[in-house]
Amino acid sequence: MAALPETDTEVLPEISEEESSDLDQPWHVIVFNDPVNLMSYVTMVIRRIFGYSREKAETMMLDVHQKGKCIVWTGLKEQAELYVKQLQEHQLSSSMKKAG
Amino acid sequence: MQLQKLPDGSLRFSGLNSWDVKTFRSLPALADYAADPEAEKRLLPTPAVEADLTPEMAMDWVEYVVPELRESFARNLEIVLSDLQHLTPEPEGPPPDIGVMPDPDAPESNLLRESSPMVPHFSLNIPADHAEHWFRAMNQARLVLSARYGMDSEHPPDLAALLASGQLEQWFQYELFVSLQGWLVEVVLDPD
User: Fold this and answer.
1) Contact between A31 and A72 (Cβ < 8 Å)
2) Residue A91: which of B143, B153, B154 has the nearest Cβ?
3) Where are the alpha helices (DSSP H) in B118-166?
4) d(C-alpha B24, C-alpha B6), whole Å
5) d(Cα B85, Cα B113) in Å, to the nearest integer?
6) pLDDT by residue (tens digit) across A23-53?
7) Across the A/B interface, how many CB contacts are shorter than 8 Å?
8) Binary contact (B182, A36; C-beta < 8 A)
9) CB contact under 8 A, A93 and B45
10) Taking a C-beta distance cutoff of 8 angstroms, is the pair B134, B15 a contact?
11) Strand order in B122-126's β-sheet?
12) Could you tell me the fold of the domain covering A23-98?
């Protein structure tokens, strides 16, 4: 078997300790209350993006409305970013935050 | 204005008067957040709370996500404007005194004529898959109006103050959008 030439060896970028712990640490996705979005729409968007039941989505929507915000999902950073993008595309006030 | 969901899922807005049409046509201007930092901040916020936002995250978001969000918002408005090109004038009804020789001295006849001016009305068919674009375009307009003027349906402003500040029309437009959006969610987007 022929040896691979040295130039084919891929050098992966080093992941710093900080980045590594960032990727492993869970993040919360939070929806904030605002005076514009209709309650029925907030429920619909939460159901659509996260696949929750109507009952669960309505409970979250009421938390948003009454308490000002609600954690709607917790998990890996990359997925959290995707969810925040989807929420913002639906024009819901949303953000992510490190869990814990 | 009458709103209908047709059997094929498309929507029909009928009985639109010239103010309704003007309001729809002004959606791009009402939803324009470019010159309004507060509105832009509301529509394009950072991805994470300040304490957890690193410069790298913020830069990546601005480079990769914000352009897609801007494009999505612009697309909603483009679709609304494209649908508005298909506004159809509604046929005017027959004159109220057709077949009857009007008596110019009869007060009823005059009243009838005065209360039935020939106001043009329009109708508009909206494909089913455009409904959400309409919703989001109107939502964007309300978000901008809220950020700009503090408009809020739960705390209606004093109408006299709105009149004095020149924002009365925007308030009525805001409220029209609230009504239409409520109908769209309940009847079209999330009817179950």
Assistant:
1) yes
2) B143
3) 131-149, 159-165
4) 21
5) 32
6) 679 999 999 999 999 999 999 999 999 999 9
7) 77
8) no
9) yes
10) no
11) B2-5, B11-16, B122-126, B88-89
12) Ribosomal Protein L30; Chain: A, (3.30.1390)
Select from A91, A93, A94 the residue whose CB has the most chain B CBs within 10 Å, as the one to mutate to test that interface.
A91
Asked if A88's CB is within 8 angstroms of B44's CB, the reply is yes
pLDDT tens digits for chain B (192 residues)? 999 999 999 999 999 999 999 999 999 999 999 989 999 999 999 999 999 999 999 999 999 999 999 999 999 999 999 999 999 999 875 444 444 444 445 444 443 444 455 678 999 999 999 999 999 999 999 999 999 998 887 788 788 888 888 889 999 999 999 999 999 999 999 887
Instruction: Report the alpha-carbon distance of residue A3 to residue B115 in Å, rounded.
Output: 94
Q: What is the pTM of this model?
A: 0.84
DSSP string, A34-59: -SSS-HHHHHHHHHHHH---HHHHHH
- Whether the complex's predicted ipTM is more than 0.95 is answered with no
Spell out the alpha helix ranges (H) of chain B.
18-25, 27-30, 37-43, 55-60, 66-84, 107-115, 131-149, 159-165, 168-183
Dist. CA B91–CA B125, nearest whole Å: 16
> So where are chain A's domains?
23-98
The first and second tokens of residue B43, run together, are 């529509």
> Using alpha carbons only, how large is chain B's radius of gyration in Å?
22
